[in-house]
Amino acid sequence: MKRHLLFLAVFTVLTTSLLAQGYEVPKNYKFESKDAYTAYEPQVKETIDWLLDTPLGKEPIKRQEANAFFMAWLTGTPNVSVGVDSRVVDFIKVNPELLMPFMLGWTRYSFDNNYSKDNILCTKAALETVAAFYRKNRGYLKKDGSVEKLEKSIEKGKLEEEIRKKLK
User: What are the record keywords, sorted (predicted)?
Assistant: First the structure.
């Protein structure tokens, strides 16, 4: 049994390591038309995965380049529009770097749900992404009561209800 668990742990670490190494930040990208934004969506999805899976302290230059690519795409794409409402992103006061996982989670949800523009469900997915990213990167972030409260809402299954109340 111990051998199986050890093998599984080693396999998981190696697989994750290899996947992270395989990501390359797009270079020389140009967004000159609606079709150009659509054409880059596979790279945007890879970028989202890499940014969310890679710990904050690893590969800071690559992270900065990936963030820049994602933001360049997001600010011009006609297919996804992220809603950043101060009533639900209060965590950025303590950890402003959590705004990026919020936008990544929103975008991923939109992609996975036929370019959903449902403000409540996109916000829910974005906040779930923030909570997961916070949990995974606690060593790099400041302790944040608002995110910890968010985690409790998720655990209790009350996140969507709370979002609806805040966004009335």
Answer: Signal
Query: Could you say which DSSP state residue 18 is in?
Result: H
Q: Per residue in 64-103, pLDDT tens?
A: 999 999 999 999 999 999 999 999 999 999 999 999 999 9
6 located within any domain:
no
User: What's the pTM?
Assistant: 0.85
Where helices occur in the chain by DSSP H, the ranges are 2-22, 34-39, 41-53, 60-74, 99-112, 119-136, 145-156, 159-166
- Residues 151, 77: Cα–Cα separation, whole Å: 31
Q: Is residue 39 part of a domain?
A: yes
C-beta of residue 167 within 8 angstroms of C-beta of residue 88 = yes
Task: Give the contacts of 125 (CB within 8 A, at least 6 positions apart).
Answer: 105, 106, 108, 109
Q: Give the other-Cβ count within 10 Å of 18's Cβ.
A: 9
pLDDT, tens digit, for every residue of 112-162? 999 999 999 999 999 999 999 999 999 999 999 999 999 999 999 999 999
User: Helices 119-136 & 145-156, crossing angle to 10 degrees?
Assistant: 120
Q: How many domains does the chain have?
A: 1
User: Does residue 12 form part of some domain?
Assistant: no
